[in-house]
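Quick one, C-alpha cells below. Sequence please?
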C-alpha cells in the first residue's frame, strides 16, 4: 500500500538535482529562509521580501541525497498560502522589525515572530538589559534607513515588499501590516502558493 501511494502521488519522483545546502534556523537568518524570500522578491518584482519563519519545517541539506523529490519539498514547506505585495514606509519597517525581535533575548524559547528576509536586507541590533533588544540599523541594498539615533532618515519613503498572507493579516503581532493594501502576486494569471514557489525556485537553481 505504501509503494502504491508513493507511485500514485509521485512522492518519490525526482524534481530537481540538489545544488544548494539550504540549512534552517528557526530564530535566526538562514540559507533556507533567505532562498525562499529571494524567490518571493523575484516573483513579486519588489524591492524586498520577508516571510514568517514558521512556514518552513525542515532543512534541505545538500548531503541528504542527490535529487529532490516531492516528499522532500513537502517536508520543508507544505503551505499553499499565496504570496502578496505591499508598499511599506521606512517607519513601518522599523515597527515590523521591532516586533520581530521582541523575543530575541529569550533563549529558552523559539522566536515565532522572527522573519526570514531577502538577501538584500540587513538588520542590526543590540542587547539591552532585562532581555530587551533594540533595532539600531536597517539597510536595503547597502543603504541605511536609520540615523545615528536609530530613527528613520526618511520616515515616509516607501518600498515595495513581497510577504506571506499570515503576517499580512496582522498575525504574530504584526499589526502594522494588517491594514496595508495587499495585491496578490500572479504568474500567468494565477496566484502563487509558497510551496509551488519553493519547488520552482529549486528547479531554476539547478539550471543556474
Amino acid at each position: 500500500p505504501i509503494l502504491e501511494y508513493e507511485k500514485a502521488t509521485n512522492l518519490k519522483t525526482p524534481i530537481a538535482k540538489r545544488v544548494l545546502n539550504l540549512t534552517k534556523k528557526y530564530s535566526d537568518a538562514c540559507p533556507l529562509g533567505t532562498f525562499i524570500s529571494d524567490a518571493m522578491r523575484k516573483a513579486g518584482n519588489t524591492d524586498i521580501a520577508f516571510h514568517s519563519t514558521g512556514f518552513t519545517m525542515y532543512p534541505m541539506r545538500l548531503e541528504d541525497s542527490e535529487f529532490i523529490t516531492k516528499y522532500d519539498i513537502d517536508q520543508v514547506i507544505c503551505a499553499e498560502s499565496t504570496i502578496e505585495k505591499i508598499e511599506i514606509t521606512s517607519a513601518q519597517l522599523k515597527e515590523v522589525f521591532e516586533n520581530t525581535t521582541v523575543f530575541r533575548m529569550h533563549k529558552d524559547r523559539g522566536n515565532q515572530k522572527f522573519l526570514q528576509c531577502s538577501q538584500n536586507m540587513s538588520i542590526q541590533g543590540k542587547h539591552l538589559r532585562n532581555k530587551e533588544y533594540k533595532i539600531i540599523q536597517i539597510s536595503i541594498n547597502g543603504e541605511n534607513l536609520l540615523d545615528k539615533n536609530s530613527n528613520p532618515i526618511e520616515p515616509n519613503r516607501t518600498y515595495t515588499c513581497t510577504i506571506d498572507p499570515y503576517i499580512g493579516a496582522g498575525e504574530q503581532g504584526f499589526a502594522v501590516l494588517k491594514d496595508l493594501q495587499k495585491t496578490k502576486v500572479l504568474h500567468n494569471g494565477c496566484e502563487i502558493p509558497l510551496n509551488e514557489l519553493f519547488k520552482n525556485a529549486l528547479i531554476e537553481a539547478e539550471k543556474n
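The two ends are 38 Å apart (CA to CA). The helical segments are 2-9, 31-44, 70-76, 90-100, 165-168, 175-178, 194-207.
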